[in-house]
Specification:
CATH architecture of one domain in chain A: Orthogonal Bundle
Number of strands of chain A: 0
Shape of chain A: flat
Oligomer: heterodimer
Number of strands of chain B: 0
Distance between the termini of chain A: 20 Å
Largest sheet of chain B: none
Mean pLDDT of chain A: 81
Shape of chain B: elongated
Low-confidence stretches of chain B: 1-6, 8-16
Order of helices and strands of chain A: HHHHHHHHHHHHHH
Number of domains of chain B: 1
Number of helices of chain B: 11
CATH class of chain B: Mainly Alpha
Mean pLDDT of chain B: 80
Radius of gyration of chain A: 25 Å
Order of helices and strands of chain B: HHHHHHHHHHH
CATH class of one domain in chain A: Mainly Alpha
CATH architecture of chain B: Orthogonal Bundle
CATH topology of chain B: MetI-like fold
Largest sheet of chain A: none
Distance between the termini of chain B: 13 Å
């Protein structure tokens, strides 16, 4: 009865839904920009609190024994002699122009480091996310609602997977498949073969987490009346599970995806270090170790920006898949 | 609400279906956690070997009867090191979770009770903290304050805080308008008493489960930082640090990394299983 009213009110309900989605996207994006400004401010002041003189870090640490003249010259060159508020305004101005400064340790613009390394990390995280979802679908759709024994075993496997830390899984995979069986190269970042082990060590724990949620929701869905209706229409068990139940059961898993992306980025730092892969994560780790402020700030900012954007996208995707959400909070 | 009777009718059925792990799993998990606590308090009960004694002659021995889990590059017994490392790893996990929770409760209460403007501020602060993946937030903290046990605990605690804070805030908002709070207000109880005696206990109940699992997660994150060389200093028998040291010898001595990691996995697994057991108990009692 409600649908009739909306049909009369708006010519095209689909278009109206799109418009609502667009409004929500605009609001979320504006919020995201505000959050990023706060993030930039926070990182700037936090890193100014850092003990140790950044000039010494630029010149290669205290062991380099630089002369006072060199120190003064470097301080002026990087603008570190100006008062803090001036430095902050200059920093924000540059940020708006897409200039993240120059890395102390690598002597090149931070944006260039990011451009060179970003692709490898993106490839790794996307591969891991796809792999994780494949594992989830395989594990849950086949085993959900198949009785206590199979369900219990699968649930145990999921709990075990979720408890595996990336770094240990990575080291074990490295020992077994790279050094023991020699199936995959132990290090490097060129070619598909080097991607397999790091992507697996990221995907397996993630799959464990998502599968736990998806199994519970799939088992609840399989008890719904519409599933029974589909079965009485003579659909095969396979079709019922994949075409009807899965779409409903995926929602909790999708809402976890925003969190999953964060977990993947955190895991990527560790996995890139273990497998000596090119990538933003390992750069961040090295930047922390060498006290390379602009690189730490630059990578954190870009990672935060990507993460905020990804969360907004997941939120919109969720609204799109489940129109009920839209009605609840327009 | 109208489904209440239906829920009641199905309660026995549902309780049966909601037990994915048998009580055997829960008791094993509790047993393992009890053993960990005992090892943290009295490591001498489990091993007589010295975790720091260097015996170059016995370096890189694979697991054997004399050295259950083998020896490391300096001939130190791995099992003894794991047992003696329990105290530090467990302490780091508990302290980090306690810190996360303190921050989360403060922010959650401020947001849930402090009025609309404060709530918006807290929500915004949480969103800013949420913009960082937890390990990136922890790395930023370590970059600013240096490495070591103290910064490690604070970094791990900070990394986990936003997630808990969001949960506490949601719980406070849900409980705030409950009938018993209104009743307590009508009786004229002071706000501080209502918060401490009514609101917090009821808001925290569902969080007990998350908290139990959180200790395991905190141990994992702290180990990850130690693994990257940003936590406890090398000779100390901390699990993450042991993993980090053993990584250099992974090609020919797998037991150096395998066993410390196995204990981390078993600990997380035990906290997860225990948490779920508590959840089932809570839900069983409160249908």
């Amino acid at each position: 009865m409600n649908t009739v009213a909306t049909h009369r009110g708006a010519a095209d309900p689909r278009r109206e839904r799109l418009a609502a989605l667009g409004r929500r996207a605009a609001v979320r994006l504006a919020g995201g920009v505000l959050v990023l400004w706060a993030v930039a401010t926070l990182t700037f002041f936090a890193l100014r609190l850092m003990p140790g003189d950044p000039v010494l870090a630029i010149l290669g640490g205290a062991s380099g024994n630089p002369t006072p003249e060199t120190i003064e010259a470097t301080r002026a060159e990087y603008g570190l002699d100006k008062p803090l508020p001036v430095q902050y305004v200059v920093y924000l101005g540059r940020l708006l122009q897409g200039d993240l400064g120059a890395s102390y340790s690598q002597h090149m613009p931070v944006t260039r480091v990011l451009a060179e390394q970003g692709g490898a990390t993106l490839k790794l995280t996307v591969a891991a996310l796809v792999l994780a979802w494949l594992l989830v679908l395989l594990l849950t759709v086949v085993t959900a609602g198949r009785g206590r024994l199979i369900g219990g075993a699968a649930s145990l496997a999921e709990t075990l997977c979720a408890a595996l830390p990336h770094f240990w899984l990575g080291v074990v995979l490295l020992a077994v498949f790279a050094f023991g069986l020699r199936w995959f190269p132990p290090a490097g970042s060129d070619g598909l073969a080097t991607l397999v082990l790091p992507a697996l060590s990221l995907a397996i724990p993630l799959a464990g987490f998502i599968a736990q949620v998806t199994r519970e929701s799939l088992e609840l869905t399989l008890e719904q009346p519409f599933v029974l209706t589909a079965r009485t229409r003579g659909l095969s068990d396979f079709a019922v599970r994949f075409k009807h139940a899965l779409r409903h059961a995926l929602l909790p898993g999708v809402s976890l995806s925003g969190w999953a992306i964060g977990a993947l980025i955190s895991g990527a730092v560790v996995c890139e270090v273990i497998f000596s892969r090119k990538g933003v994560g390992r750069q961040l780790y090295q930047a922390v170790m060498t006290q390379d402020l602009p690189l730490v700030i630059g990578i954190s900012l870009v990672v935060a920006a990507g993460y905020v954007l990804a969360n907004i996208l997941v939120d919109l995707l969720y609204q799109w898949i489940d129109p009920r959400q839209q009605e609840q909070n327009p | 609400m109208s489904d209440l009777t239906l829920d009641r009718a199905y309660a026995p059925l549902r309780r049966q279906r909601r037990l994915p792990l048998p009580p055997l799993g829960a008791s094993l998990a509790l047993l393992f956690l009890a053993a960990l606590v005992l090892a943290a308090l009295l490591p001498q009960l489990f091993t007589r070997l010295d975790p720091l004694a260097i015996v170059p002659r016995e370096a890189f021995q694979p697991p054997s009867w004399a050295h259950w889990l083998g020896t490391d590059q300096s001939g130190r017994d791995i099992f003894a090191r794991i047992v003696h490392g329990t105290r530090q790893s467990l302490f780091i996990g508990l302290a980090a979770t306690a810190l996360s929770m303190t921050i989360a409760i403060t922010l959650g209460l401020l947001g849930g009770l402090g009025g609309a403007r404060l709530d918006r501020g807290v929500g915004w602060l949480l969103e800013v903290l949420f913009a960082f993946p937890s390990l990136v937030l922890a790395l930023l903290f370590v970059a600013v304050f240096g490495s070591g046990i103290g910064p490690l605990i604070i970094a791990t605690g900070l990394g986990g805080a936003p997630g808990y804070a969001r949960m506490v805030r949601g719980q406070v908002l849900a409980v705030r308008n409950a009938g018993y709070i209104e009743a307590a207000r009508a009786l004229g109880h002071p706000t501080s008493r209502i918060v401490l005696r009514q609101l917090l206990p009821n808001a925290m109940r569902p969080l007990v489960v998350t908290l139990t699992m959180g200790v395991g997660q905190a141990i994992v994150w702290a180990s990850a930082l130690s693994f990257l060389g940003l936590g406890a200093r090398p000779p100390a028998p901390e699990w993450g640090t042991m993993l980090s040291m053993g990584r250099d010898f992974i090609a020919n001595a797998w037991w150096l990394t395998f066993f410390p990691g196995l204990f981390i996995v078993l600990t997380t697994l035990s906290t997860t299983v225990t948490g779920r057991y508590i959840q089932q108990r809570l839900e069983g009692r409160l249908p």
